[in-house]
Amino acid sequence: MRPVGSPLPPTSSLPPLRTLECSTEEQVFSALQGLSALYCPFAFPLDNASDSHRKLLSAADTLVDSGYVSATEGDEDDDCDEGEDRLAALRADNFERSHAERWLTGFIARSEMLECFTSEDSRQRAVDQASWVLESFFASTADQDQQMQEELADYAREFSFPITKDDSQGPMTVDIRLNDGLAGMDSSQPDDVGLQSWGASIVVSKLLCQEPARFGLTAASLGPSPRIIELGAGTGLVGLVMAKLLPRLGISNPTVIATDYHPAVLENLRSNIKTNFPQLDEAPIEAALLDWASPNLEHPLDAPADMLIATDVVYAPEHATWLRDCSTQILGPDGTLWLVATVRQNGRFEGVSETVEAAFGATDRPAGKDGRRLTILHAERLEKSNGIGRGDESGYRLFRIGWA
């Protein structure tokens, strides 16, 4: 018999995604708090919650310490052991966790359309809590990294971007296949796949293929053998697009280096490169470790880049500063940094995109070898595409950054 008050398995407690529009605000918060109590009971902060939200969340408060409330005082010790064992088994159940991940991602994607919330603050609070629980699944520990890496191969996703060229050749596309494990979702779920490779990387990949000259992707601008480095590559979508696109634009011998910092991400990135270039002994793209805060510029990062590109990589004020300082060291004297910052007007990342302009406009920013500094030369807004990106994304800002 289930101990009184213990969290139910997600498969039996979460309302179906297709019926979310019929749920009440209380039901939504009850579902979210059940997941919080199960997977991260100490993690989600309630300091900023409104009184109404505190009441909605208070039902599970007694679950935090032990995961259940004893049925009788005399059975307390035995019930505690039983409750802890059951919780440990439930938390370790990959099927239940995958169901919870799919539900959380589907909820975030649908949140803007749900009418059950009494205010925008309430809606954002729910999105924040869902995001918090989802992110807690990927805490950076060795065991979780290994488990995450084992699961990445299960989430394949395919992209096809049409190429626009001013010549007489027939239709061409850049086709990419990814182990898209960023959100850890089932790729058969339509609401999940839009969140695995973040919206900015998909939007930019499409633009690179549609308007390559807009980004200076021409043989006249780059020459036959340019060096292009993707910063914060994640699944490597943008870098892989570059590696397949450039030869079709007459740039015969490009070097593309996709960089990231997290070991599990780098391992998945290398797997994605192998997936997309299985027949080549030496793929035109490689993965490399790069820590923006302390860059190690050994091979293959030991030569200046002709172009840097980074999409949706700024999540804290220091990120823009680290990115600027690192780019100052690795961008060549005639190079360009293309930076896309995702605009989020609510939640924990509200206003973070604005730190890009502050970092690249600071009077004390470092100078390159010739005394020039990286400066924003042009900025424009890119619109969010339907069905792509998280619910908290309102659009993107594209920055062209160069020496001045």
From TrEMBL:
InterPro entries per UniProt: Methyltransf_16 (IPR019410), SAM-dependent_MTases_sf (IPR029063)
Gene3D superfamilies for this protein: Vaccinia Virus protein VP39 (3.40.50.150)
Pfam families: Methyltransf_16
Domain of life according to the entry: Eukaryota
Record-given protein name: Methyltransferase domain-containing protein
Organism field: Bionectria ochroleuca (Gliocladium roseum)
Taxonomic lineage: Eukaryota, Fungi, Dikarya, Ascomycota, Pezizomycotina
